[in-house]
Amino acid sequence: MSEPLLRATHLVKEFPIMGTGGLLRRPATFRAVDDVSFEIRAGETLALVGESGSGKSTTARLAARLLDVTSGTVELDGEDVTALKRSELNRFRSEVQVVFQDPYSSLNPRHTVERIVTAPLVYQQRTIPGGPRAFTRSLMERVGLDPDHSQKYPAQFSGGQAQRIGIARALAVGPRVVVCDEAVSALDVSVQAQVINLLRDLQREEGLTYLFIAHDLAVVRQIATRVAVMTQGRIVEEGDRDSVFGAPRHEYTRTLLDAVPRIRPEWERQRRANAGRS
Q: Which helix (H) or strand (E) holds 193?
């Protein structure tokens, strides 16, 4: 079996909070991520699922080096990137990109699509292949947008189209890993399916590896290779998609599955059969 492309080991993230204690308030911390470890091999999609506040998005930001870890390590292709200095992060940013939840808030409303898509290359002082206009048009075609709209602004696009712009921006630097942080949760169901299909097509064509953050299990089953279930900052269950959906081992996973409509009859039959044996 191949070595993991992305590996997180014993990740911990604590945030400072103001403690209680009358006039003499003591500083305290909140542990949002508590000893989280996972591995993703090239071409896989690992879905981190859980309720709001479970720590999944914080974990994603640690993996993408958008947040510094309190302790633990993140490795890309065997290299520990946890302690990279700001000046050394450009190389890592070329390998790991993020698609955020709200496409409008993550896109500069004052910039055209061309400027948004080419911004990562400009920031990294890299040559833009073919020039900004041709490069942007090519990327827009790849994500299913009209290349003639490269001079438009984010507000002139629908939510699904704006998210495609975000995906194009992530692809601009040629990453190997894309972190999708609730990338479809703000979209209508029909648009979600279109964006999921796009992500799967890009994965197949480009060999991308995804860390996919979601709370919607119906979305997860469409794209995940493996699933890790988080609650209270910890991973409580991890396995291949069919095993987690068909024979969940942890009570919290069963609770999540019971809270949504049955999303595949054969999984439900398998889950009921397994529950009857326990």
A: helix 189-206
Which residues, in sequence order, are CB contacts of 21 under 8 Å at separation 6+? none
Q: What are the CA-CA distances from residue 114 to residues 45, 137, 206 (Å)?
A: 29, 8, 22
Domain containing 144 — which CATH number? 3.40.50.300
- Hey, is 162 helix, strand or coil? helix
Domain that holds residue 200: 6-277
Range list of H helices, 15-67? 56-63
* Structural domain includes residue 1: no
Q: Is 42 exposed, middle or buried (0-12, 13-18, 19+ CB in 10 A)?
A: middle
What's the number of domains the chain is made of?
A: 1
- Tokens linked to 63: 């993996």
CA-nearest of 245, 202, 205, 206 to 225 is 245
Percent of the chain clearing pLDDT 90 (strictly above): 73
Note whether 136 and 117 are within 8 A (CB): yes
pTM of the model: 0.88
Domain membership flag for residue 216: yes
Residues 6+ apart with CB under 8 A from 66: 98
Report the alpha-carbon angle 120-213-88, nearest 5. Answer: 35
pLDDT class of 103 with cuts at 50, 70, 90: confident
Segment 198-249, tens digit of pLDDT? 999 999 999 999 999 998 888 999 999 999 999 999 999 999 999 999 999 9
Q: Residue 144 carries which side chain, given as an amino acid letter?
A: G
